[in-house]
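Weekly puzzle thread! Below is a chain. First person to post its structure in token form gets bragging rights.
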Amino acid sequence: MTDPFNSDSLNAPARAPFGIVPSDTVALATVPKRIFVGTGGHVTLRGVDGAGDVTYRNVASGVYLNVRPSHVRATGTTAADLIGEA
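Winning reply:
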């Protein structure tokens, strides 16, 4: 199949979205461009170049977090149905 949009950039649509299972020990297999939050709550993560974890509080359902995390932590994350856009 010919794909005239066969290139990738930070602003391009996701090419390989994946479900995120928060973990306190396991890094994400792929660093996403952003995270879609299906069911709102708190999201605790570490940015790909971050030295420590941060918590995005009271994130609404259906919001995109424009952050590139290496980890999404189970402890502190109450949001659900998280999708990494890669």
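Puzzle host: Confirmed. Bonus trivia for everyone else. The beta strands are 18-19, 34-39, 41-47, 54-59, 63-65, 69-72, 80-85.
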